[in-house]
Amino acid sequence: MIQSNLSDKSQFLYPRSCYHGQVTPKNLVFNANLQEFSQKVSYITGLQTGGKLSPEEAYSQIRNLWKQLKHSKQNLKID
């Protein structure tokens, strides 16, 4: 029962969607990175909306995440 609750909580906090597209290692890695980016942006916007982050700090954090995602795409050499 405890394991089930932990699994449910993990799925809630870190949801993953199925990949639809050409299955290659590069595409799967980038998809995982994209989903992580999306989840982190969601957390940041929630914190900003709740008054825990300033708009400037939220923007800065999202911009840094975007740069990391862009760098990931470049390293994977995805067109």
Describe the structure.
This protein is mostly helical and 79 residues long. The protein has one domain. Helix content is 75%, strand content 0%. The protein is built from three helices and no strands. It has helices spanning 2-13, 25-49, 55-76. Helix 2 packs antiparallel against helix 3 (55-76). The longest helix has 25 residues, at 25-49. The N and C termini lie far apart (45 Å). 0% of the residues are buried. The model has no long low-confidence stretch (mean pLDDT 88).
Number of domains: 1
Spatial extent as radius of gyration: 15 Å
Number of helices: 3
End-to-end distance, in Å? 45 Å
Helix-strand sequence:
HHH
Structural class: mainly alpha
Give the helix level as a range of percent.
over 70%
- Strand percentage lies at under 5%
Give the overall pLDDT as a whole number: 88
Oligomer: single chain
Largest sheet: none
Shape: flat
* Count of extended strands: 0
Report low-confidence residues grouped into runs of 5 or more. none
List the SSEs and their pairings.
Blueprint: H1 2-13, H2 25-49, H3 55-76
Helix pairs in contact: 2-3
Short summary:
The chain has helices at 2-13, 25-49, 55-76.
